[in-house]
Amino acid sequence: MKKIAYVKSADFPHPGTPVRGSRSGAPIMALFDLLGRRWAMGVLWTLRENEPSTFRQLQERCETISPAVLNKRLGELRAAQFVTRGEGGYITTALGRELYDQLVPLGLWSKDWAKALDEMSEMP
Amino acid sequence: MKKIAYVKSADFPHPGTPVRGSRSGAPIMALFDLLGRRWAMGVLWTLRENEPSTFRQLQERCETISPAVLNKRLGELRAAQFVTRGEGGYITTALGRELYDQLVPLGLWSKDWAKALDEMSEMP
DNA sequence: TTACATGCTATTCAATTCATAGCATTTTAT
DNA sequence: ATAAAATGCTATGAATTGAATAGCATGTAA
């Protein structure tokens, strides 16, 4: 019997089951678990800004990521339905783009944060 | 000579210096580095919803976090100016509340994500 | 002065990530 | 057809990070 491609993998943090950092499986905690892994947000961000990307292109664009970790993150992001494969390499799914859209304001705000830290460090 | 309290620590990812996952030090990458550590977002989230919290209260509310990690995350969040100490324990700063506010939509959206995954898993 | 709460640190062990090499398969060039 | 290059990884070992648990130093209250 063949595996069906769209079943949820038990191997990535997903809502409804206990995840690292929460026994409740609350969606936000599952999301925090998934995104709170090194490079998870960075990969999604980088991919969305360079779609499609092959594995090696992503690797280069992420500068320092190791192929083992990239492969693992891609697997998790695919299991979570944020990333899939398409023509010319990896691409984001509709869900992945929604998530990215949630991160964009964070990207803008991070500049304010940088400014605030900077001003603070200049204090006499 | 005494250390001044508000100087940036070199020991946490901050904009303008290379961080894990990016040599550029782009603010968003520094933020991703900081938040992409186990429990970082969870601690901020939990604290914001239970202000103020003592160390032990936070520990309980986070359910599974170990004191060493909580202490480390608190140190980073404080260095990043997201958390500070106040009457009755740890509290968020104005910056920390801004960041939390950026995460709130993510929390709402995570429910849609959960629903989408769920529907997908019910497919024939 | 004993008891308890608080904010950690110490220690040991497990899991994760880094850095690098390299392999199997497909595509491209000659 | 063959060789070279690109692609998508896997393997390995070292370094870093996190989990689990114990316990200590300080402060407060009884």
Describe the 3D structure.
- 2 copies of one chain form a homodimer.
- Chain A is mainly alpha-helical.
- The first copy, chain A, has a single domain, classed as Arc Repressor Mutant, subunit A.
- Chain A is 53% helix and 6% strand.
- Chain A has a two-stranded antiparallel sheet.
- The longest helix of chain A is centred in the last third of the chain and has 28 residues, at 94-121.
- Chain A is globular, with a radius of gyration of 17 Å.
- At the A-B interface, helix 1, helix 2 and helix 5 of A face helix 1, helix 2 and helix 5 of B.
- The structure holds a DNA duplex (30 and 30 nucleotides).
Question: Can I get a quick summary?
Answer:
The structure is a homodimer of 124-residue chains. Chain A is mainly α and 124 residues long.
Which helices and strands occur, and which strands form pairs?
The structure is a homodimer.
Chain A: H1 27-35, H2 40-48, H3 55-61, H4 67-79, E1 83-86, E2 89-92, H5 94-121
Antiparallel strand pairs in A: 1-2
The structure holds a DNA duplex (30 and 30 nucleotides).
Protein name (chains A, B): Helix-turn-helix domain-containing protein
Organism (chains A, B): Roseibium algae
Keywords (chains A, B): DNA-binding, Transcription, Transcription regulation
Major sheet of chain A: order of its strands? Answer: 1-2
Please identify the top-level CATH class of chain A: Mainly Alpha
- State the order of secondary-structure elements of chain A, H for helix, E for strand: HHHHEEH
Distance separating the two termini of chain A: 70 Å
Strand segment tally of chain A: 2
| Average pLDDT, all residues of chain A | 86
Give me the CATH superfamily of chain A. Answer: Winged helix-like DNA-binding domain superfamily/Winged helix DNA-binding domain
Structural class of chain A: mainly alpha
For the record, the count of structural domains of chain A works out to 1
Helical residue percent band of chain A: 40-55%
Stretches with pLDDT under 50, minimum 5 residues of chain A: 1-9
Oligomer: homodimer
Integer-rounded radius of gyration of chain A: 17 Å
Largest sheet of chain A: 2 strands, antiparallel
Protein name (chains A, B): Helix-turn-helix domain-containing protein
Pfam family, one (chains A, B): HxlR
Keywords (chains A, B): DNA-binding, Transcription, Transcription regulation
Organism (chains A, B): Roseibium algae
